[in-house]
Amino acid sequence: MGVDPAPARLTVGIVSAGRVGSALGVALERAGHVVFGVAAISDASVHRAQSRLPESQILPIEQIAQRSELLLLAVPDAELAGLVRGLASAQVVRPGTIVVHTSGANGVGVLAPLTEQGALGLAIHPAMTFTGHDEDIDRLGNACFGVTAADEVGYAIAQALVIEMGGEPVRVSEEHRTLYHAALAHGSNHLVTLIVDAVTALRASLAGPGLLGQPVVDDQPGGLPERLLAPLVSAALDNALRRGKSALTGPVARGDVDAVAAHLSALDSVDERLAAAYRALSLRTAELAQTNPALLDLLAEEGH
Fold first, then answer.
1. Are 198 and 263 in contact (CB under 8 A)?
2. Do 279 and 302 contact (CB within 8 A), yes or no?
3. Which uninterrupted H or E stretch holds 10?
4. The whole model's pTM is what?
5. How many CB atoms lie within 10 A of CB 161?
6. Which residues contact 61 (CB under 8 A, 6 or more apart)?
7. How far is 9 from 11, CA to CA, in rounded Å?
8. I need a labelling partner for 32 at 20 to 30 A (CA). Which of 117, 190, 193, 246 fits?
9. Which residue positions in the chain have pLDDT lower than 50?
10. Residue 87 in contact with residue 65, Cβ under 8 Å?
């Protein structure tokens, strides 16, 4: 194919200047590539493009595609296939262009309409949550990137690009891309849900007068419930990542039927949906811990 597996200075176009695209654009510029243009439609995207990539022009997608040596498609998963089909139909991507998408759920198959026209398709997904703030760019240096390519040349190019951006490339096969994405969503998105639920229950438990000088518990984030949870949750996460399921502690892992039954009753008085989530996670925890069969029976019955 004649493609250098370690790309030199590339002319980069980005579609679009969302949280992910703008952050990766900064990382690519820091690596010596030139982000000449970005597509930005919403006011927020325009602002990100102007503040993060001030040397880049805001251009129509077709112009970006025509001029790019590296075309970065950083659009939501649901929009990617339609964008690729539109670019292929317009025949605006030159043969030899490196086309990279950042979708976690997709491999390189979604890029087939463009690779059939001579583009080199790569899936490069940063396994990181993006907030739109400056810390996004700093976090890329500690992030792994799930990469998928059609051949070894593609993997070599994807690996080089990720390393240039400061990340760690991890090979994900095409057939396992959905499983990879599901695992990341389960671990990160559901963690947020878990913490929000725990904070809700804590707020209810701490309602009323506090100790002298203790702040009033309200509905604003960053308050007393969050401070109470933070060291416990941080330690639990660290233990889980370093020790696996042996890090499990608490009444479910101990098989304490009475304590768990009392928890379910207390949580149900706050929100039955919160109690249902606790039941589901407790059942899975009990299975992992291979705990008291009586507790497994209780949780299975409650779940039905």
1. no
2. yes
3. none
4. 0.89
5. 27
6. 15, 39, 83, 87
7. 7
8. 117
9. 1-2, 303-304
10. yes
Residue 24, burial from CB neighbour count under 10 angstroms (0-12, 13-18, 19+): buried
Using the structure block, give the residue that is written with the tokens 């059942």: 283
Q: Map tokens 């919403």 to a residue.
A: 42
Helices then strands, each counted (H, E), the chain: 13, 8
What tokens were used for 196? 């929000």
DSSP letters, 165-219, are TT-EEEE--GGGHHHHHHHHHHHHHHHHHHHHHHHHHHHHHT-S--STTPPPP-S
**DSSP β-ladder status, 70-73 and 11-15:** parallel
Give pLDDT, residue 303: 45
pLDDT value for 4: 52
Task: Label residue 250 exposed, middle or buried (CB < 10 Å: 0-12, 13-18, 19+).
Answer: middle
Query: What phi and psi, each to the nearest 5 degrees, are found at residue 151?
Result: -155, 180
DSSP code at position 244: G
Q: How long, in residues, is the chain? A: 304
Q: What is the DSSP string of 81-98?
A: HHHHHHHHHHT-SPTT-E
Look up residue 54 and give its DSSP letter: T
Look at residue 5 in the predicted model and tell me its pLDDT: 54
- The pLDDT, as a whole number, for residue 112 is 98
For residue 238, what are its two tokens?
Answer: 């660290």
Residue 289 vs residues 232, 234, 252, 283: alpha-carbon distances, Å: 20, 21, 8, 10
